[in-house]
Amino acid sequence: MREGMSTDLFNRENGIPVYRQLAEFFKTQISSGVYRPGDVLPSESDCMREYTISRTTVRLAFGLLSNAGLVRREPGIGTTVISQVLSKLPMLSSFTEEVTRLGRTPGVVLVARAEEGLPLNAANALDLPVGQKVLKVIRLRTADAEPIGLAVSWLNTARQPELRNMDHAVLSLYRAFESDLGLTIWNAHENIRADLAGDYEARKLKIKPGSPVLRMTRTTYVRNEDESRTPIEYVEVVFNASVYSVDVELYRQSK
Known about the structure:
α1 crosses α3. The protein has 2 domains: 18-81, Arc Repressor Mutant, subunit A, CATH 1.10.10.10; 85-248, Chorismate lyase (3-Layer(aba) Sandwich), CATH 3.40.1410. By secondary structure, the chain is α+β, with helices and mostly antiparallel strands. The protein has 7 helices and 10 strands.
């Protein structure tokens, strides 16, 4: 039994179902680092014996944890804590910066790089004609060597030819834009929606086709000397929804 666990865990008089109390207990244990990514939670039998509860209660609790993206349940292995990458909005940061902020090790695999004609959505974002050839870069993003997101970037080499010559396998393209090319990132427009993984995306992310994903599109702009802005990158990223989440802090507008 881990430190912090107690056989007198539940308040059976507060009206909150025991399975929800058990789920909240493990959420606290995970968030506080008692259980870290890769750790296996106590088995159903261990929980039944330790807390004098039914198997159904344990399964309901673990189901809540799984739905929250905190654990993965695997036959023959158990209930394993999975890692999370949290993106905080509206802070404009790169994937590398987000992962590093969480104390994890970012990684990148350069999947493909080629000059291709722009599809409609990328052309509109970069303010270029459909079919205009620019550099397309596909990168697999990882955290602690675990696949997290598949990024397809269209770089505006029509207006910034030097983008062709940079190292596209670097951890952070943003950092390379700024430190290597001397560009100043100004702002970005981002859209995030729920979707299902296609076959190619699923293979790269090592998930099943049709698994839930977060599909993000982002257009990044750089500042020009005359204070105007130029779109430099349009990227479509597919994140494994079980290990990536978005945190937004909202403010109410004063009347």
